[in-house]
UniProtKB/TrEMBL annotation:
Organism: Salegentibacter holothuriorum
Region (Disordered): 424-447
Protein name: Predicted dehydrogenase
Record-linked Pfam families: GFO_IDH_MocA, GFO_IDH_MocA_C3
Domain GFO/IDH/MocA-like oxidoreductase residue range list: 194-309
MF terms in GO: nucleotide binding
Residues in Gfo/Idh/MocA-like oxidoreductase N-terminal domain copies: 50-175
Amino acid sequence: MKNNKPTTSKLNNNSRRTFCKNTALFTAGMMMPAMDMNAMYNVFNDKKLKLALVGCGGRGTGAVNQALKADDNIELVAMADAFEDRLSGSLKQLEKEFSDSKKVKVKDQNRFVGFDAYKKAIDQADVVILTTPPGFRPHHFEYAVNAGKHVFMEKPVATDVPGIRKVLEAAKIAKEKKLNVVVGLQRRYQKNYIKIAEQIQQGEVGKILSGQVYWNSSGVWVNPRQPNQTEMEYQMRNWYYFNWLCGDHILEQHIHNIDVANWFIGEYPISAQGMGGRQVRTGPEHGEIFDHHFVEFKYPSGAVISSQCRHQPGTMSKVGEGFQGTKGLVETNDAGVAKLVDLEGNDIFKYRSRNDPNPYQEEHNKLFKSIRNGEVISDAENGAKSTMSAIMGRMATYSGQFINWDEAIQSDLQLVPENLTWNSTPPVTPNPDGHYPIPTPGKTRVI
C-alpha cells in the first residue's frame, strides 16, 4: 500500500452538485483533443506500447487478453500480484494464448509479488491495467497517474470515502497530464445501452421520473480456509466477503446498474435510504457482507430509483434496468435488449444485439485508439462518483439511516489499512466461534 494517508480535506468542489448534468450522456467517456506540444509525449503513434498488469486474477488475465488484441504493436512486459501462484498461472495462460504473436514478454525480473509489487510493475510500462481487489485501487491509480501512465482500471474504484476522494484528486491530475483513463463500467461501451442513451438525450421518453435497477443472482465463489493459513492470506484469497477489500456486492457488482441510472438520468443521487441483511449466506465463510440490499436513491431532478441486489440461490435472477419517463418507458439489460415504449405501450424504439462488439473488448479498443490518436478518455471522475453512489447505498443498508451525499462525501471512516504486510492484522477479525462481526442497522457507524 502507499505510505501517504488518504486526504481528509473537504473538497467542496467534488460535491455532487458541482457535476454538470449534461456530462456526455450518450458517450462512453469524455473525448478531448490532446495535440498541444505539452501533450505530445502521450501521442505514441507507431511506438510499441509496453503494458503492465497489476492484479493477476481472472479479470486481470481477461483484461490483458483484450488489451493485447486491441492494438497490433503492444506487449505485456510486467506483472504484479500479492500471490506468486496467481501471477504464474496468469502468465502461463497468456503465454499460451499469445504464443504465435510473441506479445507476452515478461522477464523473470519483471514478475513482482507482494503488497508493494504494483509500483515496480507500473514503472516498467506505458499503459497499466489495475484489476486487484478494489480496496487497493485508489493507491494504485494515484501511483500510476503520478508516474504519467495511461490506465485501464476495473470498477469499483474504491471501497471507502477516503479512497473516493483520492481517486477524484488523481482524476484531476490525469486530465491535466492528458492521460487516458478507462473504467470497467462496460455498459457505457455496449451498443444497446449507447443507443438507448441517445434516445433518452433526444427526449423520446421525456423526463425520467423513476426506475428500478437489479442485480439478483445466486452469488459467487468461496475459497475454503487452508491449514496454517494466516488471517490476512485467508481474507485476501476471499476478498469478496470483506468490506475493506470488496465493499460488498452492492458495490462490486450492482454498481453497473446504479451507474446506468446515473448515466441515463444525467445526475448522481443526493440521498439514499434502504434496508438489507443476511438470511441465506450466514456462515463464517461469507465474511461480513450482506446477502441482500434494497435502496431508494433520490436525484436532484426529483427522480427516485429503486435498487435491489441479492445473492441467494434458488431465487429470481435478474440483471437489468427499467425506467419510467413522462412520455415513455425504458428497458435495458446486458443480454443486448433495449427498448422504449410510450405510455400506451406502443413501441417507440427497439434494439437487439446482432453480432455487436464485445463491450469488454471495446473498452480496450477505444483506449488504445485514443492513445494512438492523441485523444483523451476521462472515465475516472464518473467511475468515482458511481462508486460513491453505491457506497452511499451500502451506508444506508448497514445503518438504516438516511444518507446525504454532501455529508457522506466528507466521511473520514477509512476501511483500508496503510502499509500492509503479510504479518498485518486485517481490519476485521473473527470472533472465537469463527464468525465475523456483521453490520447492524441502528448501531453500525458508516460516516
